[in-house]
Amino acid sequence: MTDAAILAGVFPAGAAAGPFGRRQRRPRGARMPVILVTGFLGAGKTTLVKALLESEAGRDTAVVVNEFGEIGIDQALLAPAAEGKVALLGNGCLCCAVRSDLEETFRALLHDRARGAVPPFQRVVLELSGADDPMPVLQTFLGERSLAREYHVQAIIAVADAATGRAALRDAPEARRQIAIADRIVTSKADLAGAAETARLAAEIRAINPDAPLAEARLGMVDPDFLLAESSLPPPGPLQADAPRHAADLATFTLGFDRPLPWRGLTATLGLLCEMRGADLLRAKGLLAVEGCRGPVVVHAVRHLLHPPVELEAWPDPQRRCSRLVFITSGGLARAPVEALFRAVAALGPP
Amino acid sequence: MSIARAETRHAATWNFRLIGQHELNGFGGMGEGLSMQIAKDGRRILWAAHESAPKNFTAIDVSDPRNPKVVVQTDLPHRDMRSNSLETAGDIMAVAYQTKRADMQPAGFELFDISTPEAPRSIGFFDASGPYSRGVHQLWFCDGEYVHMAAGARDFQPHDMKDDQFYRIVDVRNPSKPEEVGRWWMPGQRVGDNAPKLERHREPIIDSGFRAHNTNVYPQRPDRCYLGYLDGGMFILDISDKSLPTVVSRWDNSPPYHGFTHTILPLFGRDLYVVTDESTVDNAEDWPKLVWIMDARDERNPVPIATCPMPPVAEFKNRGGRFGAHNLHENVPVPGCWQSENIILGTFFNGGLRAFDISDPYRPAEVGHFVPEAPRGSPMGSIQINDVFVDDRGVVFCVDRAIGGLYILEMEF
User: Fold this and answer.
1) Which residues 118-157 on chain A approach chain B with CB closer than 8 angstroms?
2) Which of A56, A60, A68 is nearest to A35 (CA)?
3) For residue B134, what pLDDT band results from cuts at 50, 70 and 90?
4) How many domains would you assign to chain B?
5) Neighbouring-strand partners of residue B86
6) Minimum CA–CA partner of A119 in chain B
7) What is the nearest CA distance from A204 to chain B, expressed in angstroms?
8) Is residue B47 part of a domain?
9) Cβ separation of A30 and B1 shorter than 8 Å?
10) What's the CATH code of the domain at B48?
11) In a domain, B357, yes or no
12) What is the rounded CA–CA span in Å between residue A134 and residue A45?
């Protein structure tokens, strides 16, 4: 039960609220946006982040860097944009030992901001080390109540360099995963690798992640708006074909629904999926038309975690109010059984 | 891990976007009257009262909020008075006049025909002057029929001159001949009351006076007045018989707080009240001045259940000027006014404009703030956001008390 539903017994939600509480103007609501920058070792993540900090659009950005294996280097590179205290909070691979560090760092950031110990900032960029698996980080942001209330992972940016990218995709499962769950992808070092190799890398990326917008960095930079764009949902347009099963362990597919979905059936289905196949459900995200809701409902699941839904005030395109749910899976969890599950639950009808 | 960040500065904006500003021709010290008129030609005209002389009121065309244009700016008859408060109902505007001292003129309120915003035309005046009266500090006027106000009167002698203004209801259906139809004051406030004299706040609690401030009446409950009474706390009055208001309930947080209860905003769809106390002393010497959330399920017994989170006082108290709560966006029941029962916007002087999500009223959460740089020529070296109004497009208008004029914002939460 959502907080809104519990409170409704005491204080009604008021006319302006929907079943999930106050409708939001955008998925992040009032929360602080976090942009995760992932990518292979040496792919150019720091260069990209540094360029963002130095751009006008990137003002008021706080940066948290995980320094695994690169102590001092990234810090030195980013330091010119950072005046005063730089806290060294530990190092290690974020996906395991440092998760509590991550929580503490992000909580401290907000407290420091509230008491004026750090200047106001509008967003946080979290640069992961090349070896990090972004999944546990994503789970931390979604699963820890104290973080989920305050922070919203606005986008996962994966950086892949053309020089070594294809080898990394072939040899490193983390690299494939970084590409698979990314909302936007930057290819770098095209000048070193040449146009042909860059195109081959793009094709391999597309085979894993057919929907995420792709940009090519020039001298380590991309348009800041590409990194800062708010939507982490695939752009509206005709659905891409399912990704060919190039990477045997990963699949991406999109389910579309023409009619508003009953919320109970939907949560039952997603809940079952998270419960039974959570290990293979890397990410599910979508904008759904839900019965009884005026605006679209944002759903986001990572592994076993289903994030509390957020109802938006309006559809991005009022003419197209159809639900789309994107799944990124591993371990052979394919479209057919997921679709069958949705159909089966729908067939059960109202309880 | 390391944290990188930008340079230190006082200005801070979170989840608001500044889209326009107007210094109002150099007369940007604004009071607590902001009201929107949708003119016959479709223009949105924001009427704004000035905090002090020499200006009376300014009308700003905010149809395009990115390009506000002053339509008219008027002068007061003399410098020993202020307008401070105004409201519009359709094409009629009521403006409060308060003089510096008792027994001066003009003390009362003036009615204007604003059907041509460029040329407001006086159509009536209600005199509230008297040997013990400074006139009208604040008024509420949204039905086109009655003005509810905090005012003195010729026949009202308070025991203490700080207690000169009380609650008065004036019928203005014939604007050329406004007539008082009801009044209420705290028993013991007036000389001759059949009640003991009011017990004043004693040091170290500040004695600001027992007088009316905001006098809100809404069509959802036309038989209730939600009355802020400064050091008297808040009152809910039954005004089903306007000639004889009676007390439904009272809540007073002072002492130990420093009084100055200012606004009671009822949220009818949610069984809640939002109550503010005004900070009136520089450098937060009357801290804390808060925004209170009250359980209103039983209006006879309002229960405080939370306060809206404030930024750290240590951060703000030495910035210059006042720091603490003051005005709210009040869901004024007129066309063109935003209605909100989950988001509360309040002004906090050098704490800027702050927005709170009270979806869970036990745990209000700040969702945005706007603390601009000190405006050009600021006498106290800090911003002093004084009042706020949100229109039905979701455009936020707030004003500086000293000099900065009008700031126009969009909400991003």
Assistant:
1) 118-122, 149
2) A60
3) very high
4) 1
5) B95
6) B8
7) 32
8) yes
9) no
10) 2.130.10.10
11) yes
12) 14
CA-to-CA distance for B70 and A272, rounded, in angstroms?
A: 60
Domain of residue B243 covers 31-375
Residue-wise pLDDT for B282-328, tens only, equals 999 999 999 999 999 999 999 999 999 999 999 999 999 999 999 99
Its CATH class, for the domain covering A245-348, is: alpha beta
CB contact under 8 A, B3 and A15: no
* CB A240 within 8 Å of CB A324: no
- Please identify which residue in the block is written with the tokens 């955008």: A26
When the pLDDT of each residue in chain B is averaged and rounded to a whole number, the result is: 96
How many CB atoms lie under 10 A from the CB of residue B128?
27
Q: ipTM of the predicted structure?
A: 0.83
SS3 content of chain B, % helix, strand, coil (to 5): 0, 45, 50
Give the range among A28-42, B71-85, B171-185, B316-330 with minimum mean pLDDT.
A28-42
Question: CB contact, 8 Å: A336 with chain B?
Answer: no
For residues A152 and A145, the answer to whether their CB atoms sit within 8 Å is: no
Residue with tokens 């999944």, as numbered in its chain:
A135
Tell me the domain boundaries of chain A. Answer: 32-228, 245-348
The residue behind tokens 């479209």 is A335
A11, A91, A140: which to substitute to probe chain B, counting the most B Cβ within 10 Å?
A: A11
Separation of alpha carbons A219 and A217, rounded Å:
6
- Are the CB atoms for A4 and A24 separated by under 8 Å? no
Distant-in-sequence contacts of A48-52, Cβ < 8 A, 24+ apart? A48/A157, A48/A159, A48/A186, A48/A188, A48/A217, A48/A220, A48/A221, A48/A222, A48/A227, A49/A78, A49/A125, A49/A127, A50/A77, A50/A78, A50/A81, A50/A220, A51/A220, A51/A221, A51/A222, A51/A224, A52/A125, A52/A224, A52/A227, A52/A228
Fold classification of A32-228 is Rossmann fold (3.40.50)
